Amino acid sequence: MPKPLAGKVVLITGAAGGIGAAISTAYADAGATVIVGYNRSPDSAKALCAALSGGGHVARYAPVLDSGVLRSLAHAISSDFGRLDILVNNAGVTKVVPHDDLDALEDADIDRIFNTNVRGSFACVRAFRSLLAASGDGLVINISSIAGTTAVGSSVAYCASKAAIDSMTKSLGRALAPEIRVVSIAPGWVAGEYASRADPAYLQLQVDKTPLGRIARGADVAAAAIALSTTLRFNTGCIIPVDGGRQLT
Q: What confidence tier does 101 reach under pLDDT thresholds 50, 70, 90?
Protein backbone atom coordinates (compact mmCIF):
# COMPACT_ATOMS: atom_id res chain seq x y z
CA MET A 1 0.00 0.00 0.00
CA PRO A 2 1.28 3.52 -0.77
CA LYS A 3 2.47 5.59 2.17
CA PRO A 4 1.73 9.18 1.15
CA LEU A 5 3.06 10.64 4.41
CA ALA A 6 6.29 8.66 4.64
CA GLY A 7 9.02 10.83 6.14
CA LYS A 8 6.55 13.22 7.78
CA VAL A 9 6.40 13.74 11.55
CA VAL A 10 3.09 14.52 13.26
CA LEU A 11 2.35 15.52 16.86
CA ILE A 12 -1.14 14.83 18.19
CA THR A 13 -2.16 16.23 21.56
CA GLY A 14 -4.61 14.29 23.68
CA ALA A 15 -3.78 11.38 21.42
CA ALA A 16 -4.61 8.52 23.76
CA GLY A 17 -8.36 9.19 23.70
CA GLY A 18 -10.85 7.86 21.16
CA ILE A 19 -10.58 10.51 18.43
CA GLY A 20 -6.87 11.00 19.10
CA ALA A 21 -6.19 7.28 18.82
CA ALA A 22 -8.09 7.09 15.53
CA ILE A 23 -6.11 10.02 14.14
CA SER A 24 -2.83 8.52 15.35
CA THR A 25 -3.67 5.20 13.71
CA ALA A 26 -4.55 6.84 10.41
CA TYR A 27 -1.33 8.87 10.28
CA ALA A 28 0.77 5.81 11.10
CA ASP A 29 -1.02 3.81 8.39
CA ALA A 30 -0.22 6.63 5.96
CA GLY A 31 3.48 6.28 6.77
CA ALA A 32 4.02 9.21 9.14
CA THR A 33 6.02 9.04 12.34
CA VAL A 34 3.56 9.78 15.15
CA ILE A 35 4.35 11.59 18.39
CA VAL A 36 1.55 10.56 20.74
CA GLY A 37 1.06 13.53 23.05
CA TYR A 38 -0.47 12.89 26.45
CA ASN A 39 -1.16 14.70 29.69
CA ARG A 40 -2.35 12.21 32.32
CA SER A 41 -2.32 8.87 30.48
CA PRO A 42 1.28 7.78 29.81
CA ASP A 43 0.44 4.08 29.89
CA SER A 44 -2.37 4.47 27.37
CA ALA A 45 -0.12 6.59 25.15
CA LYS A 46 2.67 4.01 25.23
CA ALA A 47 0.23 1.20 24.51
CA LEU A 48 -1.09 3.14 21.52
CA CYS A 49 2.45 3.66 20.20
CA ALA A 50 3.11 -0.05 20.41
CA ALA A 51 -0.07 -0.78 18.45
CA LEU A 52 0.61 1.64 15.59
CA SER A 53 1.79 0.32 12.25
CA GLY A 54 5.31 1.13 11.15
CA GLY A 55 8.08 2.20 13.51
CA GLY A 56 9.63 5.16 15.25
CA HIS A 57 6.49 6.31 17.03
CA VAL A 58 6.93 7.76 20.53
CA ALA A 59 4.79 8.92 23.43
CA ARG A 60 5.66 12.35 24.79
CA TYR A 61 4.35 14.40 27.70
CA ALA A 62 2.51 17.33 26.11
CA PRO A 63 0.48 19.25 28.70
CA VAL A 64 -1.15 22.02 26.68
CA LEU A 65 -1.47 24.28 29.74
CA ASP A 66 2.30 24.34 30.38
CA SER A 67 4.01 26.49 27.76
CA GLY A 68 7.43 25.81 29.28
CA VAL A 69 7.05 22.07 28.80
CA LEU A 70 5.77 22.63 25.26
CA ARG A 71 8.85 24.70 24.42
CA SER A 72 11.07 21.94 25.83
CA LEU A 73 9.16 19.38 23.79
CA ALA A 74 9.75 21.44 20.65
CA HIS A 75 13.49 21.36 21.32
CA ALA A 76 13.34 17.61 21.94
CA ILE A 77 11.43 16.99 18.70
CA SER A 78 13.95 19.07 16.78
CA SER A 79 16.80 17.10 18.31
CA ASP A 80 15.22 13.66 17.96
CA PHE A 81 13.47 13.96 14.60
CA GLY A 82 14.87 17.09 12.98
CA ARG A 83 11.43 18.21 11.86
CA LEU A 84 7.72 18.57 12.63
CA ASP A 85 5.33 18.70 9.70
CA ILE A 86 1.85 18.42 11.24
CA LEU A 87 0.35 19.45 14.57
CA VAL A 88 -3.08 18.15 15.52
CA ASN A 89 -4.59 20.10 18.42
CA ASN A 90 -6.90 17.40 19.73
CA ALA A 91 -6.69 17.89 23.51
CA GLY A 92 -9.91 19.26 24.92
CA VAL A 93 -12.26 19.15 27.89
CA THR A 94 -15.89 19.89 28.66
CA LYS A 95 -18.51 19.63 31.38
CA VAL A 96 -22.14 18.74 30.76
CA VAL A 97 -24.30 21.60 32.04
CA PRO A 98 -27.79 22.49 30.74
CA HIS A 99 -27.57 25.80 28.91
CA ASP A 100 -30.24 27.42 31.05
CA ASP A 101 -28.55 26.44 34.35
CA LEU A 102 -26.23 29.40 34.64
CA ASP A 103 -25.35 28.75 38.27
CA ALA A 104 -24.13 25.21 37.58
CA LEU A 105 -21.52 26.47 35.12
CA GLU A 106 -19.07 27.79 37.65
CA ASP A 107 -16.14 30.12 37.02
CA ALA A 108 -13.67 27.29 37.50
CA ASP A 109 -15.45 25.23 34.84
CA ILE A 110 -15.37 28.09 32.36
CA ASP A 111 -11.68 28.74 33.00
CA ARG A 112 -10.78 25.05 32.63
CA ILE A 113 -12.66 24.70 29.36
CA PHE A 114 -11.31 27.89 27.78
CA ASN A 115 -7.79 27.40 29.08
CA THR A 116 -7.53 23.88 27.72
CA ASN A 117 -9.48 24.18 24.50
CA VAL A 118 -8.45 27.66 23.38
CA ARG A 119 -5.34 28.80 25.21
CA GLY A 120 -3.86 25.31 25.03
CA SER A 121 -4.33 25.08 21.26
CA PHE A 122 -2.80 28.52 20.76
CA ALA A 123 0.11 27.66 23.05
CA CYS A 124 0.89 24.57 20.97
CA VAL A 125 0.90 26.55 17.73
CA ARG A 126 3.16 29.13 19.34
CA ALA A 127 5.57 26.50 20.67
CA PHE A 128 5.87 24.52 17.43
CA ARG A 129 5.56 27.34 14.92
CA SER A 130 9.23 27.45 13.99
CA LEU A 131 9.44 23.72 13.39
CA LEU A 132 6.27 23.70 11.32
CA ALA A 133 7.42 26.64 9.22
CA ALA A 134 10.84 25.08 8.67
CA SER A 135 9.27 21.93 7.26
CA GLY A 136 8.18 23.91 4.22
CA ASP A 137 4.81 22.17 4.36
CA GLY A 138 3.49 22.91 7.84
CA LEU A 139 -0.08 22.08 8.80
CA VAL A 140 -2.05 22.75 11.98
CA ILE A 141 -5.35 20.92 12.43
CA ASN A 142 -7.56 22.14 15.25
CA ILE A 143 -10.20 19.64 16.35
CA SER A 144 -13.25 21.82 16.82
CA SER A 145 -16.97 20.94 16.83
CA ILE A 146 -20.12 21.96 15.01
CA ALA A 147 -21.12 23.26 18.46
CA GLY A 148 -18.99 26.29 17.59
CA THR A 149 -21.56 27.32 14.97
CA THR A 150 -24.77 25.66 16.17
CA ALA A 151 -24.30 26.70 19.83
CA VAL A 152 -25.75 23.30 20.76
CA GLY A 153 -23.47 21.20 22.92
CA SER A 154 -22.49 19.98 26.35
CA SER A 155 -22.37 23.47 27.87
CA VAL A 156 -22.43 27.16 26.92
CA ALA A 157 -18.71 27.38 27.69
CA TYR A 158 -17.88 24.39 25.50
CA CYS A 159 -19.79 25.82 22.52
CA ALA A 160 -18.15 29.21 23.00
CA SER A 161 -14.69 27.64 23.25
CA LYS A 162 -15.18 25.84 19.94
CA ALA A 163 -16.36 29.08 18.31
CA ALA A 164 -13.17 30.68 19.62
CA ILE A 165 -11.09 27.86 18.14
CA ASP A 166 -12.70 28.41 14.74
CA SER A 167 -12.03 32.14 14.94
CA MET A 168 -8.43 31.43 15.92
CA THR A 169 -8.11 29.07 12.96
CA LYS A 170 -9.09 31.90 10.62
CA SER A 171 -6.75 34.40 12.28
CA LEU A 172 -3.79 32.01 12.27
CA GLY A 173 -4.55 30.80 8.77
CA ARG A 174 -4.04 34.39 7.64
CA ALA A 175 -1.11 35.15 9.92
CA LEU A 176 0.97 32.02 9.27
CA ALA A 177 0.48 31.66 5.51
CA PRO A 178 2.05 30.57 3.30
CA GLU A 179 4.49 28.51 5.38
CA ILE A 180 1.82 26.96 7.63
CA ARG A 181 -1.77 26.08 6.83
CA VAL A 182 -4.33 26.11 9.68
CA VAL A 183 -7.67 24.29 9.43
CA SER A 184 -10.43 23.30 11.86
CA ILE A 185 -12.15 19.93 11.63
CA ALA A 186 -15.59 20.21 13.21
CA PRO A 187 -17.30 16.91 14.04
CA GLY A 188 -20.80 16.50 15.35
CA TRP A 189 -21.45 13.66 17.77
CA VAL A 190 -18.67 11.07 17.58
CA ALA A 191 -19.17 7.46 18.62
CA GLY A 192 -16.95 6.61 21.59
CA GLU A 193 -16.69 6.88 25.34
CA TYR A 194 -18.45 10.26 25.61
CA ALA A 195 -21.31 9.24 23.33
CA SER A 196 -21.68 5.95 25.20
CA ARG A 197 -22.52 7.89 28.37
CA ALA A 198 -25.32 9.85 26.69
CA ASP A 199 -28.95 8.93 27.11
CA PRO A 200 -29.66 6.33 24.37
CA ALA A 201 -32.93 8.00 23.40
CA TYR A 202 -31.22 11.39 23.03
CA LEU A 203 -28.40 9.85 21.00
CA GLN A 204 -30.89 8.12 18.72
CA LEU A 205 -32.57 11.48 18.20
CA GLN A 206 -29.25 12.85 16.95
CA VAL A 207 -28.94 9.93 14.57
CA ASP A 208 -32.47 10.50 13.32
CA LYS A 209 -31.70 14.18 12.69
CA THR A 210 -28.53 13.38 10.72
CA PRO A 211 -29.16 13.14 6.97
CA LEU A 212 -26.50 10.44 6.51
CA GLY A 213 -28.19 8.29 9.14
CA ARG A 214 -25.50 7.88 11.79
CA ILE A 215 -23.17 9.84 14.01
CA ALA A 216 -19.50 10.18 13.14
CA ARG A 217 -16.83 7.66 13.97
CA GLY A 218 -13.31 8.50 15.02
CA ALA A 219 -12.19 7.15 11.66
CA ASP A 220 -14.29 9.81 9.89
CA VAL A 221 -12.45 12.58 11.72
CA ALA A 222 -9.13 10.87 11.02
CA ALA A 223 -9.96 10.59 7.31
CA ALA A 224 -10.54 14.34 7.15
CA ALA A 225 -7.15 14.94 8.79
CA ILE A 226 -5.41 12.64 6.31
CA ALA A 227 -7.16 14.34 3.38
CA LEU A 228 -5.96 17.75 4.58
CA SER A 229 -2.44 16.33 4.82
CA THR A 230 -2.41 14.74 1.37
CA THR A 231 -5.00 15.87 -1.18
CA LEU A 232 -6.82 18.91 0.24
CA ARG A 233 -3.73 21.05 0.11
CA PHE A 234 -5.23 24.38 -0.98
CA ASN A 235 -7.17 24.90 2.24
CA THR A 236 -6.34 27.22 5.10
CA GLY A 237 -8.26 29.33 7.61
CA CYS A 238 -11.41 27.28 7.11
CA ILE A 239 -13.69 24.94 9.08
CA ILE A 240 -14.48 21.52 7.65
CA PRO A 241 -17.54 19.84 9.19
CA VAL A 242 -17.58 16.08 9.72
CA ASP A 243 -21.18 15.76 10.84
CA GLY A 244 -23.11 13.76 8.26
CA GLY A 245 -25.11 16.86 7.39
CA ARG A 246 -26.38 17.35 10.95
CA GLN A 247 -26.46 21.12 10.54
CA LEU A 248 -28.92 20.83 7.65
CA THR A 249 -31.82 19.87 9.92
A: very high
Give strand pairing partners of 148. Answer: none
* Residue 76, phi then psi, degrees to nearest 5: -65, -40
State the alpha helices, DSSP H only, in the chain: 18-29, 42-51, 67-81, 107-114, 120-134, 147-150, 156-176, 193-196, 200-208, 218-230
| pLDDT classification of 191: cutoffs 50, 70, 90 | confident
The answer to whether 105 touches 162, Cβ cutoff 8 Å, is no
61: annotated active-site residue: no
For the chain, the domains span 9-191+219-240
pLDDT at residue 199 in the model: 81
pTM above 0.85, yes or no: yes
On the 0-12 / 13-18 / 19+ scale of CB atoms within 10 A, 68 is exposed
Pick the CATH number of 9-191+219-240 from 3.30.70.141, 3.40.50.300, 1.10.10.10, 3.40.50.720: 3.40.50.720
CA angle 28, 115, 219 (to 5 degrees): 25
- Cβ-based neighbours of 149, under 8 Å, separated by 6 or more: 163, 166, 186, 239, 247
User: Which of 27, 38, 61, 158 is the catalytic position?
Assistant: 158
Interval 78-100: pLDDT, tens: 999 999 999 999 999 999 999 99
- With H, G, I as helix, E, B as strand and everything else as coil, classify residue 187: strand
3-state secondary structure of 12: strand
